Amino acid sequence: MKSFTAIVFSLLAASVFAAPVEERALQVTVSLANDQSGANAGVQFPADGNNRSIRTLYGNTPVGAGGTVLASSAQLTAFPQTINCVIRNNGAVIATLTAQRTFADLDGNPNAAIPVNLNGGVINCRA
Fold it and tell me: What is the pTM of this model?
């Protein structure tokens, strides 16, 4: 009887560990900053390859005060090493962030800190 119980337990344990584990998307945290006002906000979301509205993500943060998301830079602050994030504004790519390039100037002029209206923007991160 003891050997039967041991065999049954072994089979049950093997079947539990063989069950597929649900994959969860890795998380990424992207910080937007308005270098003129000093406002900044970091938001965490899944790096699952889906377009995410910047207005939805950051609208209720300091960079989205007054209903308009204004930022002059973006930075990865927590991310897996395989991360690739693309920021588009009104359909045009304005920045790409990776584990090797964690900071981006959003206005296209590295010598100025001009906030960009990102209400029409999306961010897409994949790990």
Answer: 0.80
